[in-house]
Design brief:
By secondary structure, the chain is α+β, with helices and mostly antiparallel strands. The chain has one domain: Ubiquitin-like (UB roll). It comes from Rhodococcus opacus (Nocardia opaca). It holds the Pfam family Fer2. One of its GO terms (biological process) is P450-containing electron transport chain.
Length: about 110
């Protein structure tokens, strides 16, 4: 299990313990974090789980593939250098303590 903190657009903070292999999107939706929509169910086809990853964890993530890059181009909120789709971030021990800020608009 690894801990992750989600900061919603309204400033609310939710900390979850997430099993290895579960994505941030799956954990957020499963625990009722409403600011993460996950409309496509985690297939990387909608950008409704757009988050901004804390800088210190960016190098620990699996590199972004071209599909994720294309989906982020369709995101409703501004894309930043630390933008990722939370459905593409599978939790593992080396990500323990990660904090993500949920993008303000998911639609």
């Amino acid at each position: 299990m690894a801990n992750a903190t989600f900061i919603s657009p309204d400033g609310n903070r939710d900390e979850l313990s997430i099993a290895s292999g579960i994505t941030l999107m799956q954990a957020a939706v499963g625990h009722g974090i409403r600011s993460i929509v996950g409309d496509c169910g985690g297939s990387g086809a909608c950008a409704t789980c757009h988050v901004y990853v804390e800088q210190q964890f960016l190098d620990k993530l699996t590199p972004m593939d071209s599909n994720e890059q294309e989906m982020l181009e369709c995101a409703s909120s501004p894309v930043k250098d630390n933008s990722r789709l939370s459905c593409q971030i599978a939790m593992h021990d080396h990500l323990d303590g990660i904090t993500v800020e949920v993008a303000p608009t998911q639609w």
